[in-house]
Structures are given as C-alpha cells and as structure tokens.
Amino acid sequence: MSDLSLHLGEGAIRIEFDEGLYPKDAIYGAAYVFIDRCWVHLDRVADRRIQVTLKAKKAGADTQAYAGEFQNELLGQAWRLRIVEENRKLVEAITARALGGAAGPPGLDELLSMDIGEETAFEDPLGIAMSWEEKYKKKGKAEGAKAEGEGASEGASEEEKAS
Amino acid sequence: MSLSTLFTDLGSQAKTPTGLVPFRFREVSGDILLTNFLGDWLFVTQDEFRSLARGELDPAAPLHEKLAAKNFLRDGLDQAKAAERIAYKKRFLNWGPNLHIAVVTLRCNETCVYCHASRANMDAVHTDMTPEIGEKVVDLMLQSTSPSVTLEFQGGEPLANFPVMKHIIEYALARNRAYGKALEFTMVSNLAMMDEEKLAFLVDHKVQVCTSIDGPEHLHTKQRILVGGNAHREAVKWIERINKAYIDIGLDPTLYHVEALLTTTREALKYPKEIVDTYVSLGCRAIFLRPVDPFGFAGKTAQIVEYDRAAYHDFYRTAVEHILDKNRRGEQVLERYASIFLTKILGDDDPNFLDIRNPSGSGIGALAYNYDGKIFSSDEGRMMYETGDPAFQIGDVFSSTYRSLMKHETVRALVMASIREAQPDCVNCTYTPYCGVQPEHSYRTQGTIFGRMRESTLCAVHKGIQDFLFDKLRENDPKTVEILQRWTTVRARTHFIHASSAS
Amino acid sequence: MIELRFHEELYDGFAIDEAVKTYAAYATAELSRDGGAYVVKVTAKPEATQQGIEERVLSAELANYALGLSIERARETRAGETAREGGAA
After folding, report:
1. How far is CA B84 from CA B91, B111, B349, C8, in A?
2. Which is more confident, B502 or B410?
C-alpha cells in the first residue's frame, strides 16, 4: 500500500490502531477532526489493523502534538460511539423535544409549499410502512426467519380456526 | 484512603451496591460527594463510601436514611415526581430562542485586548446594520416560540449606530402588538458615546444597560483604550448617571442599576479583591467573574491575556471569599457563576443560562444577527465568522424563515453535541446534572463541537467552581449556606418588560 | 508524478473521483485499480508549479479531500441505514 509518509517527507507520523479497540467509524471521526490542520492518510495494514499517517500542514507546527491529540480524539470518538448507542433513546428524546419546541408547528405557508404529490406522497424514509418482519429480519438468517415465520403463521392459522 | 486507589485496595471485595439509583461520585476535601440523575446530592464519609463500594448497605444504618431522603434508593423513589422534576427543569426545551443578539455595527471607539467583536474603525460605516435588516431581525425574533424574547444590542459599540438602534426598538414595540410577547431590550456598551439625549430615549424605552468594567481604573484603562479619553472614567460617569436616572423615575436601586461585566485577563488575576470592591462601589449587586475566552481578538492575543486555569481558580476563590465576607457584613452582592450553579444545586431549577445549559442554548436558545443580516447559532459563532470561519452561520435575514433556522442541520448537531449525558467524561462526571459546555467553544479550541473535556479549559473552569461551591456546602457553615441560598433567589426586574396583549 | 494508493475498504471510489475533479485545475491524474486499492497517479500541471505549488502538497491535499468526502459519504450511508432500522420508535 501507499506510504504517504514518503511523499509528505520528514516529520510524518504513522500510528496503527486495532479495530477491535477503535472501530473504523471512530477512526473516521478522529481523522475528520484533523484534516484541516494535518494531511491524513488511512491504510489497512493487516486484518483489523488500520494505519493512520499524519503530518501537520503548517511548517513548524508540531506533528507529534497533533498525533497525541489525534489519539485522544480517537479515544473520545470510540467511547462516544458506545455511549450514544447505550443512551440512544435519551439523546433522541432530548433532541426531538429541543428541536420541536424551538421550531414549533409549521405555519400555513410552509404546509402549502410542501411538495406533496404523486412522486413524494409515498416516500417512506423512516420505514414506517414497512412490516416488522421486513424491517428486523437479519441478513443471512432470512431463510431461518422465513421458516420460523411460516411455522408461526401456521400455528396462528390453527389458533384462528380454533377461536 | 484515596478515591483513586479505593477500588484497587478493595480488589475482589468491590461490589456494585444494589438498590441504588444511578449515581456518580467525586472526592471533595476528603468526603465523597454523590449526585444522582435528578440533581440530588449528598456527602458521605470515606468509611460510608467504602461500605457502599463493598456492596453493603444496612437498612438500619444512618447512611440508609440519608440516601433515602435524597432519592438515592430505588425503593420508595416516586418516579412520577422524579419525571415531573426533570420535565420542570428542562422546560426550556419547550421553547425556542429567547435571546436575540443584534450586532448593529462593528464600529467601535475603544480597542480592547480581549475584544470579541472583531471591531472596525469609526469610519467603517459599511459595517452598520441598516434599518431594513434591523426590521427583518425583529420579524424573525417575534416568530420565536418563546413567549418572552430579549433583543440585545451589541457591537462594536452599538451607540455608534444609535439611529438604527432607535428605529429597531420602535419597530419592535409596534410589531409586538401583534405578537404579544414579553419583550425586553438590553444594550452592551462601553458608554463612552452616551449623552443625555440617548440616555433619555433608553430610559424611556426601558432598555437595560450593560457595560464592561475590568476593575480599578489602572487595570481597566490598560486593557481598554479610548483614544483621546479615559475609558474607565467615562464608564463610571455614565454608570452613576444612569443609576441616578433610575432612582429619579422611582425604581429600586438595589434591583435596577447598570450591570457590569468583567473579563478576567492575566493582568486581572492580580486584583481579585480590588475588582470586587470596584464593582460594589459602582452599585453593582452581581459580579460575573468570566474567564477570558478564545473568541475574537482574545484568540489572537492569547499570549497576552490567557493563563492556565489553576491561576483562574485561585483568583476566583479569593474573589468569592471576599464577596462572601461582604455578605457576612451585610452587603448584598453575589457572584454570577456561583448563582447559576447554585440555582441548579440548591434551587432544583435551571436558570436557563444558555452557555451552561444541557443541551446548550446554541441556536435553540439564542440567535446572533450580524450587521449584514447573516444569522448565527450564537454570538461566539458570529465572532468565528468575523475571524474567518463560517461554520456556525445558519442563515440570513433575507432568505431564512424562522423554522428553517431551527431545523438547520448545524443547530441539530449543536444540540446533540451538547447533551452532556452522551459525551465521554461527562457521562461519568459528578457535576453533569448541573453543567453545560458551549459546543462553539470546543470547536474553537479543539476543532470539534463535541470537545475533549479533559483538555477543555471550559470544563476545567466549571469543575473548579463547582468544587469550590460544594466544598462550602460540605463545610455547612450556616451563615455561608444562608448566603449561598440567597444567591439562588431571582428578583424579577419587571420594569424592563414590555408586555403587550396581541391584537 | 506521485502515486497514491487508497484502500478500497477505507476510501470511497466516488469520493476519489470527486477529489480528482476538484483538483483538475492543478493536476492531471491517472486512475486505476490494483489489488484492493484505488491508485491515483498525480502530476502537477505546469501552471500549478509556476504558482509555487509543490506536487507533494497537491497530492496530499487531494488525498485529504478524498478522505473527507469518503467519511461524509460513509456517515450518510450509515445515517440512512439507522433511520430505516429505528424509524418507527
């Protein structure tokens, strides 16, 4: 794979991360925070290992310090992913209340200007119209789920007949 | 015992105590402070905490009763009441921005080392807000879902564009007849361009006046340069004049007077008591010991004005002890930071101070309108724009509707980034029930709206202040606690509210 | 000429295309695939070098752009998946 440190010259720093500890999403998040101040390159160097190459853009800036900050940011990003997953409902509830309270209901002008027509009327970005089975069936277990579903529906049919 | 080694010492004896609500803990001067998700708190001794850490809680022990009384036990927790308390404290989420900051000009007649405003020279009239833009600011403001709104005039020096300020005030009062909001006006000014005519208008139209006082004259004039004049003397002259004007119209001077704000620079750190004395001598009843922040010029002059937060904490403690002494001798004056935190700690309420709110007031609690009509999530966001970063611009008065501002993705991101329960470090922090961090500050200092709290100077300030306050509460000196309790009492300044019934 | 390699699992092909287009005024680029990587051979145009723009800085900025856009696209995709999974809360 490319060794961007060669192209960036002296001072570029390479750090490797175990994806088991630092998910790719967290590495993305940390990288994004630094692309204004540093040149950042990601590479996969082995299974479950990602290498980050960093170099400060400004001459004289301390790449070592940025690398340290990067690792701190990465730790925060990785931890935040877990926290938000665990506290998802709380985050959603507060955000919805905050934005709903601030925005208030749409006025007549806004309702009239909404694009509700043939093409948009049946858009379902949140999947509200999807059946539970369709939404929650797992990939790779679709056949098993289907078999269970058929078994359950047969049972249900019999119950219906009985009642 | 050190808290940091307690669990290592306990080893396999460490057990999660059962029957308790989720709580967090922190050592404060040798005792252990516990806080829960409702914002209740209590101190336990080290021995009591050690027994909890072993999973022991004897129902007959005094500790059990202490914990029950403060809603730390699951059994007997009135969940409905708990939900009610949380809903009450978070009621600000039901409404949109109540603070609307109008930067009517960048022109300024003073130069200050820590200036937020990215000031312009007095001949830069192209940085004046036009009457048309001012009207659009008012139109947007009045659409806020908040039943009360405050229009705050800032600059530069807002008096440099007084004609437009006047026009905006008159327009807002007229328009508000249709909206019926509880409308207030405030102005943040250095007062050096004040005169009797302007004063008469401001008093007549109930505009609250706020100014900056950096402390004794030698300190103030070192940091705030008024060409051809003395910035301190001008400010003091007009503070006294305005305060007299309030008395002349029959207002209680303990409640109605010019508010003054401090920006604690490195130089100011040397004069905690002198600064407090200066404020008290000017009739101020509240002192806000704000540390310098990284926005505007302060970001560029950091080498001159910045300092490490330990130095700020020393300054803060000395100043507040001095304020407490004054209170013990009968003078009623409070420190604003303390008052904000104490309202949450002792008052079981939220004072809705936008920068220390959870989630923060960025966008949903305040909007800043630049002279050119651009709209930002906060004044700090606007300052960042003036120094080259438009990240927090969410619209402009010409093309944005009120709802489009509230539904802007930046506002959504700022809300989510400032929910303390979802942030690393804060999720475990004992002070999370009382704290808040402005995401624009994190962005400016660390490059991300989420921030890394261990490296955050704002977090360090908040922790230091809360450590100090909780230490006072732990000491439990009756007179001190009575004073601190008094600092949570808000006397409404109803004179400044323009109430109007909608037609 | 500087050869940049972008691992397919970490960079988005569309994002790399966009990065190349964005910097087209300053550099020519030859795109290919090799192994599990997108390969971009970047050569600074004379007008860029005349302006004092270093080829390696140009390639580093192009790589940054590709990374930034890859991350944004990954987030958008994830947000869409999350909305579909949990939308009916």
Report:
1. 10, 49, 12, 52
2. B410
Chain C residue numbers with beta carbons less than 8 Å from the beta carbon of A41 are 63, 67
- For A120-154, the pLDDT digits (tens) are 666 776 667 777 776 666 554 444 444 444 444 44
In this complex, is the C-beta atom of C4 within 8 Å of any C-beta atom belonging to chain A?
A: yes
| Inter-chain CB proximity A98 and B364 less than 8 Å | yes
Give per-residue pLDDT as tens, B311-344. 999 999 999 999 999 999 999 999 999 999 999 9
Burial (Cβ within 10 Å: 0-12, 13-18, ≥19) of residue B316: buried
C46, part of any domain: yes
pLDDT reported for residue A5: 57
* B494 part of a folded domain: no
Which residues lie across from B28 on neighbouring strands? B31
For chain C, the domain total comes to 1
> Do B298 and B157 share a structural domain?
yes
CA distance C11 to chain A (A): 8
Task: Indicate the pairing of strand B31-36 with strand B41-44.
Answer: antiparallel
Instruction: Encode pLDDT of B153-195 as tens digits.
Output: 999 999 999 999 999 999 999 999 999 999 999 999 999 999 9
Q: Which residues of C touch A4 (CB under 8 A)?
A: 4, 60, 63
Q: How far apart are CA B158 and CA B58, in angstroms?
A: 64
As a whole number of Å, the end-to-end CA separation of chain B is 67
**Does B447 contact A37 at a Cβ distance shorter than 8 Å?**
yes
Query: Does C68 fall in a domain?
Result: yes
The fraction of chain B above a pLDDT of 90, given in percent, is: 82
For residues B235 and B265, state if they share a domain: yes
Which residue of chain A comes nearest to B449, CA vs CA?
A33
Domain that holds residue C31: 2-74
Numbered residues of chain A with Cβ closer than 8 Å to any chain C Cβ: 1-2, 4, 7-9, 24-25, 28-29, 31-32, 35, 39-44, 50, 55, 88-89, 92, 125-128, 130, 135-136
Rounded distance, CA A12 to CA A31, Å? 15
Residue B428 lies inside a defined structural domain of this protein: no
Domains of chain A: 4-86 (3.30.70)
Spatial distance between the Cα atoms of B176 and B85, rounded to a whole number of angstroms: 33
B469 domain residue, yes or no: no
Tell me the nearest-neighbour CA distance from C26 into chain A, angstroms. Answer: 17
Minimal Cβ distance to A44: which of C10, C61, C88 = C10
Nearest-by-Cβ selection for A79 from B145, B359, B424: B424
Of A24, A40, A127, the CB nearest to C88: A127
Domain of B149, CATH number, reads 3.20.20.70
Provide ipTM, 2 decimals.
0.89
Asked if chain A contacts chain B via 3 or more Cβ pairs within 8 Å, the reply is yes
* % residues pLDDT > 70 (chain B): 96
Q: Is residue B8 part of a domain?
A: yes
- pTM, entire model: 0.87
- Written as one letter, the residue type at B32 is I
Do B145 and A104 make contact, defined as CB atoms within 8 angstroms?
yes
Q: Rounded distance, CA A103 to CA B407, Å?
A: 7
Query: Do B401 and A110 count as a contact with CB atoms less than 8 A apart?
Result: yes
Show the domain range for B73: 3-89
Count structural domains, chain B.
Answer: 2
Chain C and chain B touch, per 3+ beta carbon pairs within 8 A: no
Average pLDDT (B430-440) is 97
Confidence of residue B502 (pLDDT cuts 50, 70, 90): low
Among B177, B186, B75, B256, which Cα is nearest to B500's? Answer: B177
